[in-house]
Amino acid sequence: MGGRTTIALFLTILLGALGLLALWFEAVGGAVLAGFLILGVWTWVLWGRLAPYTQRRATNTAVLALSYGATGLGIFCLVLILGTLIWNGLGAVSIDFFTESTPASGSQGGGMLNAIYGSAVMTIVATLVGSPVGILAGTFLAEYGRGNLIAPVIRFINDILLSAPSIIIGLFVYEAMVLRMGHFSGWAGSVALAILVVPVVVRTTEDMLNLVPGSLREAAFALGTPKWRVIVTVTYRAAMQGMLTGVMLAVARISGETAPLLFTAVNNQFWTTNMNDWMPNLPVAIFQFALSPDANWQRLAWGGALLITVTILALNIVARVLTSGRSFGR
């Protein structure tokens, strides 16, 4: 009897006893786990008796099966989520959904016009504020950061912002802006979203500018063009599609953010264009309506979730199309 077989027999007896003990205490999960472990032990024994070529073939087959299984599971979960969202959300999408404001609790009908408007305005303001900052910072890192001691510090801080939970950004803006102003506002929500835009745009801008061939810059320098003009007229033009992709990805990220708006803009059930007041927005409205026992509010929450999902999907598709364009060959 080989060494593996002896160890397998010992482990089988031990795991079998533990499985029976688990059944005695009505712990079915423990018994099932013990059974799988016994199966794994004897698989290990049989594995040692296979020829090396057979082992390689079996390893390849097992890894491929696991890869296909993981892919299939991910696609199944995605289809299940999207199917549930479409099934429940389509019933709420109508003309009233886009033309009426959010209703009071217990009433029928209504829509999400005020929330759609508030989200669109705060997203536009955040993009207009955050994108130039991100583009300029990314330009500095790509064009002036080589050999600069401050560039690695900026990249490190940008990576922290890129991975920081959005609720931390909301708390920061609440402390720095909301408490100082004395009230929640759409401006505070826009600032929180703008901070989330910046690191995404910085990373994509730097990466896109680094992909521009150095020969384009050298040709412009050879004609006596100053560096700032080379960046604006040559480098930016070559990397424009990639930079626009970064802006769109940033917009897609902030479109569904709820946590920072809970501490800055909150929500407003009424129509308002005053950015200095509580601002209605889709993410928080969906959050509040989904937690409500009101069936009409839950229906509107499903519709709002479907609208945000379709919007983000469309932005990502456009970003992919722009990325696949030949921007560096021009």
One letter per element, helices H and strands E, the order comes to HHHHHHHHHHHHH
Radius of gyration: 28 Å
Total E-strand runs? 0
Tell me about the largest β-sheet.
Answer: none
Query: Strand-residue fraction?
Result: under 5%
In total, the number of domains comes to: 2
Query: What's the shape?
Result: extended
Low-confidence stretches: 326-330
CATH topology of the largest domain: MetI-like fold
Helices, by number, come to: 13
Report the structural category: mainly alpha
CATH H-level homologous superfamily name of the largest domain = MetI-like
Helical percentage: over 70%
Quickly name the level 1 CATH class of the largest domain. Mainly Alpha
**Ends distance:** 71 Å
> Overall pLDDT, averaged?
87
Protein described:
- This protein has helices spanning 3-24, 28-48, 52-89, 95-99, 113-144, 150-163, 166-181, 186-211, 214-222, 227-255, 259-262, 282-291, 295-323.
- The protein has 330 residues and is mostly helical.
- The protein has 2 domains: 3-89, no CATH class; 98-323, Orthogonal Bundle (MetI-like fold), CATH 1.10.3720.10.
- It is extended and about 75 Å long.
